[in-house]
Each structure stands twice: as structure tokens, then as C-alpha cells.
Write a structure and sequence with these properties.
The protein is mainly α. It has two domains: 1-135, no CATH class; 137-253. It contains eleven helices and no strands.
């Protein structure tokens, strides 16, 4: 969810230079730093917290935050990409929301996954801004289509997880489509939002083709709901679809 949108942003801007790779390094380091914050919050729920684990988390947070800062400073000081500050503000707000979800033990819920899709997909407009030097409607379009793409993946994986204990009861095709009705409806909504984004924006309408593999996956996956899913296989297929999505968006943009 972080790497693919970054690649899309760079690819659409047709630029792959040291600036974009500095951004990538900074985003990865800040992502790992945020993970340490979340780990620290989760440790509050431990009956007997491990003091060494607490120290390790704090040290790793400082290390990753420092490395991320070192990567981003040249983008601000040398290349004068000041809008990064505003993106950083949005990231801080999303991090604060994530912290609330962790405290309420909802970070691994569907809400937490949707938030992750929105936050990590922000690497698309960030990469486009660093490459093109401007934050325009195209940057926001890239954010939207990447967010919608990964949102569809989140709903599909959740469908497969929910179906695992019920697979033996989903005998008929009608039962399977009835069980997956909500997810299929959400996929239709996602495709509609993608079409709307492409219609009002400047991206090629043919980019809708990048969403076809995942939409077909949702249909085929629903047909096969009576068979317990191997989540590792689902993950591998989703990764392949993400790469295909990035390539198609870059070529068709």
C-alpha cells in the first residue's frame, strides 16, 4: 500500500531521480517509526510488560524517526518542496486517529484497514508532487484511485476471512452471492467512484481497466467461497494485482 502508490506517482510524473528515492526512504522510515508508536501503545495491554521490549521500541522509534528526518530535510532545504509540511500534517492527523484505534483495540478492525489504505496511498500524491513540483488535481486523482484500489482489496480479504468458518454452509451459488452481497455492492460503489474520478479529472478513462482484475477476482472468489481460502495465496495474488495495477495506470495515464 506504500510502495505501489509511490511507484504510480513517480511513473505518472515520468521522473525517477534522487528526490523521489529520498522521499521513499523518508516515508519508509517514518512508517517504521509509526509502527513503534503503535507497538508501544499495545504494550499497555500486557499484564507484565517486558522492560527490554519497551526500551527496544523506544530506541527503534528514535532511530527510524531520525533516519526519516535525514531523508526528508534535503527535500525541504535543498529542493524547497514546502508542501511536504502540509502532507506531514495530514499524516500526523491520521497517526493520531490510528493511536485512538489502537487504544480502543480497533486497529486491526475493518476501520483500521480502511484508514491504512487512505494513509499509505498518500504516497502517490507525495511522489507526484516531489517529481512534478506541484500539488494539483492530478495528484489528488492519483490519491483517490490508489485508495479505492486498495480499499477493494481490503474488502475482498475481509470477505475471505469472514467466509472461513462458514465455508461448509455456503453450498449453493445463491448462498455464496447472498453472503458476499455487501462486498459485491461495495465493489460496484468503488468502480462507480473510480469512473466519476476519471470523468471529472484529467486521467485517461481507460485506467478503469486497471481495476478489472480485482473486480473479476471478487466475482471468482465469491463463486469459490465454499472452499476455505489459503490467505497466503490470496496475499500473493493481491500483490500481483497491485503490480499490474501500477503498470497499467502508468502506461494509460
Amino acid at each position: 500500500m506504500l510502495l505501489i502508490p509511490w511507484a504510480v506517482g513517480c511513473g505518472v510524473a515520468r521522473r525517477w531521480s534522487e528526490r523521489e528515492f529520498l522521499l521513499l526512504a523518508g516515508m519508509l522510515m517514518f512508517f517504521l517509526a509509526q509502527a513503534q508508536i503503535m507497538n508501544r501503545l499495545r504494550m499497555r495491554f500486557a499484564i507484565t510488560p517486558d522492560p527490554r521490549a519497551l526500551v527496544r521500541v523506544q530506541v527503534l522509534f528514535i532511530l527510524f524517526a531520525l533516519l526519516g528526518t535525514l531523508a526528508v530535510v534535503p527535500l525541504l532545504a535543498v529542493y524547497h518542496l514546502k508542501a511536504l509540511v502540509y502532507f506531514g500534517g495530514v499524516a500526523l492527523v491520521l497517526t493520531a486517529i490510528s493511536m485512538v484505534l489502537v487504544i480502543r483495540k480497533l486497529d486491526r478492525s475493518l476501520a483500521g484497514q480502511i484508514l491504512a489504505s487512505a494513509g499509505l496511498s498518500m504516497s502517490a500524491p507525495l511522489a507526484y508532487y516531489v517529481a512534478a513540483g506541484t500539488v494539483d488535481h492530478l495528484a489528488m486523482e492519483l490519491w483517490m484511485i490508489n485508495f479505492l484500489f486498495f480499499l477493494g482489496g481490503v474488502f475482498y480479504v475481509q470477505l475471505k476471512i469472514d467466509a472461513l468458518p462458514r465455508a461448509s454452509r455456503l453450498r449453493s451459488l445463491a448462498d455464496r452471492f447472498r453472503f458476499a452481497g455487501g462486498t459485491m455492492g461495495l465493489n460496484v460503489v468503488i468502480l462507480s467512484l473510480v469512473l466519476l474520478t476519471l470523468r471529472v479529472g484529467s486521467l485517461s478513462p481507460f485506467i478503469i481497466l486497471a481495476f478489472v482484475p480485482t473486480f473479476l477476482q471478487a466475482i471468482i472468489g465469491t463463486i469459490r467461497l465454499d472452499r476455505p481460502a489459503k490467505l497466503k495465496r490470496v496475499g500473493i495474488i493481491s500483490t500481483v494485482h497491485s503490480i499490474v495495477f501500477a503498470v497499467l495506470v502508468i502506461l494509460l495515464a
